[in-house]
Design a protein that fits this description.
Layout lengths: L1 E5 L2 E3 L6 E3 L4 E3 L5 E3 L1 H17 L2 E8 L4 H10 L3 E6 L5 H15 L3 E5 L10 H9 L2 E12 L2 E8 L2 E8 L2 E5 L14 H7 L4 E5 L29 H11 L4
Parallel strand pairs: 1-6, 1-8, 6-7, 7-13, 8-12, 9-12
Antiparallel strand pairs: 2-5, 3-4, 9-10, 10-11
Helix pairs in contact: 2-5, 3-4
Length: 248
């Protein structure tokens, strides 16, 4: 089984976010970038298939040279090789089309991608990729088992989980639950050293036209002042919630 894991290069969730050029560009100064958490869950599941079923695992990213340390971390975790599509990712459809070309050329059986990236939260790429490649598709996946070409997947729905039966080839939009946080792998020194020798192939982009542009970024409004109420002054608390906060 050939597995392709899509990797997004996103700011660490603890990073302080700022914008530049009159709030039209994300300011990367001082920002630490990491593997998108949803993608890391998927990569960990791919490693399970590699160890238990002998699957090969390739990681892929649409990005410029600054994303290579993130791909090297994925190699250190255990992926066999990496591909960087040399393009500046601007919108979801552009990314999906670039990824689809890689999928078609190498005939992968299983495509794993986080259901969304932690920076833009678009939830677009996995579904678009499935449509472009004509693969089966399961989104919001929290459980995945494969026997030959038969797949049992569990996805999260409102109020519970849904178990599905499908077949390869398949695109999966994964999230926490496909593995648990305790199962995530931290690269050790041996993995880091081996990653330096693993292939990281840079391929030319297909120069897919983008269909959206960023007009402006805007931070959320700052939080208002906090009022403290004595624990035994219930009447005042109710009055504030009713007349000021207007939540009751």
């Amino acid at each position: 089984m050939k597995i392709l894991v899509c990797i997004s290069h996103v700011p660490d969730t603890t990073s302080k976010i700022n914008f530049a050029d009159d709030n039209t560009k994300f300011d990367t100064n001082g920002v630490q970038f990491v593997i998108n958490p949803y993608d890391e869950f998927c990569l960990t599941r791919a490693m399970w298939f590699k160890e238990k079923q002998g699957a090969s695992v390739t990681v892929v990213n649409v990005g410029e040279s600054t994303t290579e340390p993130t791909l090297r971390k994925a190699l250190a975790i255990g992926a066999d090789n990496a591909i960087r599509i040399n393009a500046n990712p601007v919108d979801g459809l552009q990314v999906a089309k670039e990824l689809a070309e890689i999928v078609k050329e190498a005939e992968y059986d299983l495509i794993l991608a986080g259901k969304e990236s932690a920076d833009y939260n678009g939830q677009m790429v996995p579904g678009m990729l499935a449509a472009l490649t004509d693969f089966n598709f399961v989104n919001g996946c929290v459980g995945l088992e494969i026997d030959g070409t038969n797949v049992t997947a569990v996805r999260e729905i409102d109020g519970g989980n849904e178990t599905l039966s499908t077949t390869l080839p398949l695109v999966v939009g994964g999230q926490k639950g496909i593995v648990e946080e305790k199962d995530l792998r931290i690269p050790n020194m041996r993995g880091i050293m081996m990653a330096r020798k693993k292939p990281l192939n840079v391929v030319d982009a297909k120069n897919v036209a983008t269909v959206t542009t960023v007009e402006t970024f805007e931070k959320p409004a700052p939080k208002g002042a906090v009022k403290l109420v004595d624990a035994d002054n219930v009447d005042e608390l109710i009055n504030l919630l009713h007349n000021e906060a207007k939540v009751i």
